[in-house]
Amino acid sequence: xxxxxxxxxxxxxxxxxxxxxxxxxxxxxxxxxxxxxxxxxxxxxxxxxxxxxxxxxxxxxxxxxxxxxxxxxxxxxxxxxxxxxxxxxxxxxxxxxxxxxxxxxxxxxxxxxxxxxxxxxxxxxxxxxxxxxxxxxxxxxxxxxxxxxxxxxxxxxxxxxxxxxxxxxxxxxxxxxxxxxxxxxxxxxxxxxxxxxxxxxxxxxxxxxxxxxxxxxxxxxxxxxxxxxxxxxxxxxxxxxxxxxxxxxxxxxxxxxxxxxxxxxxxxxxxxxxxxxxxxxxxxxxxxxxxxxxxxxxxxxxxxxxxxxxxxxxxxxxxxxxxxx
Length: 325
Hints:
Elements: H1 2-27, H2 32-40, H3 47-57, H4 73-76, H5 79-84, H6 102-137, H7 142-156, H8 159-173, H9 188-219, H10 222-229, H11 234-245, H12 247-252, H13 254-263, H14 266-271, H15 277-286, H16 290-318, H17 320-324
Helix pairs in contact: 1-16, 2-3, 6-9, 6-13, 7-9, 8-9, 10-11, 13-16, 15-16
């Protein structure tokens, strides 16, 4: 219990520091005047237009301290409080382009991203572990050499090649699945099967090599030789003893996976027109919508920190030594 409390207490100042860093990145390095001029483009011909754009979106306020306000208003009526500090409790403000609230738009786009990335995450984890375990059990064999060669090939090919080839082959030529769009309910499977398959294929090369290294290290330990000497079936040795003791480095990879689950896959959602978080981020970058981009940067940092905390807590479940410490 003390371990959990300590990790949560570490989380609070770290989150505030991340919030402050994101604010400095968007409003000190890149001033509000610069943001307004970039958003207006060729329309930013006069200082009056820039000032009106800033006033309509709350960028005309002072950065940290408002001398014209009284009491706590001198801190609340600032860009830092209105545009950055409010994100700590889920108030993301409005879009710079559409002036629509960002929070409801994020909530609307999370389910499609979860449907895509959660399927890719679970399927990739399953195939990576099973293939890596079988390769490790047949080390230095023709099967091991062939799988490693295939993994290097998969890692060498860009994800764009997989996407374009699959869309042309299965969508344009064979007409098996649609190449873009998304529908909830029963029709969702038709739109997700191709991007999920591409996501699995893109993660297979690096994932199998990573887990193979972990499993080979565990297979050389004394407890594996003891289990085999006792006559335990090879499947039980591999998928019970070896896999259980390899969970620590596997769980270390969870923060990145958790971030992808919520933020979505930028390339897959953009090329397959899936209305998720990844496509939302790409659209905001193309439109120079700094409010949305700032929100996504902070949200990504927050989710990564949550993943780190969950990983540390999960260590208590799989490693008794953490409890002793």
